[in-house]
Amino acid sequence: MVPPQNSLPVKRVHLIGVCGTGMGSLAGLLADAGAEVRGSDEAVYPPMSTMLRDKGIRLLEGYKPSHLDDRPDLVIVGNIATRHNPEALAAVERGIPYLSMPQALGRLFLEGRHSIVVAGTHGKTTTSAVMAFVLSAAGRDPSFLVGGVLIDLGRSYNLGRGEDFVIEGDEYETSYFDKGPKFLHYRPRSVILTSVEYDHAEMYPDLASVKQAFRKLLELIPPDGLLVYCADDANVREVLPSARCRTVPYGCGRGDGWRGHVRSSGPEGMEFEVSLDGVLFGVFKSTLTGLHNLRNILGVIGVAHARGLSAQAIAQGLASFAGVKRRQEVRGVAAGVVVIDDFAHHPTAVRATLQATRDRYPGRRLWAVFEPRTNTTRRSVFQDEYARSFDDADRIVLAAVDHPERAPEGERFSVERLLADLKGRRKEADYIPTVDGIVARVAREARSGDVVLVMSNGAFGGLHQKLLAALGARAPS
């Protein structure tokens, strides 16, 4: 494979919806590649606005046809834009070339690179971040674009000189003019498939349609490529026959391929041993905890080994990886109470995150504070499953559903029903609809040694900092 050249066929690029996580990262890649980059968004505010301006990227408030009056070489349309977006309409009317974010990434950055796509319903961000960091720590200087900020590096993207490009492969739709999954544009040569489960209810009608999306991804891997897949997931095993390339399994317990076993867990992380086809490969340490993260790491080890990294190099990267913002991220400690931020929203992710937090802080009282705010969690599709997802929590606080009107009437998630189901399972749970009410309750009743796990895919009204401030202001007992 020819070494990649960090140069672009376009010089002036405009991004519609530039402050989104993926679009902001793409803007950074474009700027690092030497393009003159500017973008527009409805809401321009920190931290993304600060990061973009620090890169010399001009930000324009709102969507206006006049933003394209100087005819940029290319317009990139974020999937926040509808077909009625004034700038998207202007680009079409004026004949200005336009691409979706995934199309642009594939066409402008993946030619000549070894694309490592991390896909799956769960674990994409953490796994792709670990993959990128392990390659970076080994001196491979990879490019990467992931859906979260790596704490060690302080960013979610990198334009490296190395051959590898690590991409978080999202199954969500590409744009208003391309309803196919984003990952179909990423030219995969190596793929880590973590899990296949029903999600994105507003896009996929059923599990069968989700499986079909992942089958299409596996069909894209060339015969000389590699699929490293989680054999513990029955749905992953079901889509596996679509792959034409070499396939390598991973999982916990006995079996072929990469297998892991946790030796110990605690506040500093976990120690675990890894074998390949029954032969010990090495003993490793990670700041991450939980079986779901062990599986994520096994996928990384499988691809890293195939890309030529030694067990020692992999171990050094894993041991020094500090984590990803908003994935089991400790936001602070006040009055002896640990406050953790996590992105979990799907019931499987809620369950796994609580188990991992329990592993990290054994013997402590664990609070779970949960806000339903994704398009899927606003719907009743997982109503019953959520009641079984909080078993590892000692205290549960449920927030109001964010914008419930965005779910179809008659299909909306009921926090009241979840509360009743949790109490039926003899769990100590409360429904507190406001952020200030949640802060007041937890700050009043949490005691030193407690761990508060806050789960939301949004800002949650600044709950984390408000809670830490309230705990810090509490009079000593």
Describe this structure in words.
The protein has 477 residues and is of the alpha/beta class. The chain folds into three domains: 12-100, NAD(P)-binding Rossmann-like Domain (Rossmann fold, 3-Layer(aba) Sandwich); 113-320, UDP-N-acetylmuramoyl-L-alanine:D-glutamate ligase, CATH 3.40.1190; 329-472, Mur ligase, C-terminal domain (Protein-Tyrosine Phosphatase, Chain A, Alpha-Beta Complex). 31% of the residues lie in helices and 26% in strands. It has 14 helices and 23 strands. The protein has helices at residues 21-32, 48-54, 86-93, 101-109, 124-137, 207-220, 234-239, 291-306, 311-320, 347-360, 383-387, 415-424, 435-445, 463-472, and strands at 12-16, 36-41, 58-61, 74-77, 98-100, 114-119, 143-150, 155-158, 164-169, 173-175, 178-181, 190-193, 226-230, 246-252, 258-266, 269-276, 279-286, 329-334, 337-342, 366-370, 395-398, 428-431, 451-455. The protein has a ten-stranded mixed beta sheet with strand order 8-7-9-6-12-13-14-15-16-17, sandwiched between helices. Strands 18-19-23-20-21-22 form a six-stranded mixed beta sheet, with helices on both faces. Strands 3-2-1-4-5 form a five-stranded parallel beta sheet, sandwiched between helices. Helix 5 packs across helix 8, helix 5 (124-137) packs across helix 9 (311-320) and helix 13 (435-445) runs parallel beside helix 14 (463-472). The longest helix is centred in the middle third of the chain and has 16 residues, at 291-306. It is globular and about 60 Å long. The N and C termini lie far apart (65 Å).
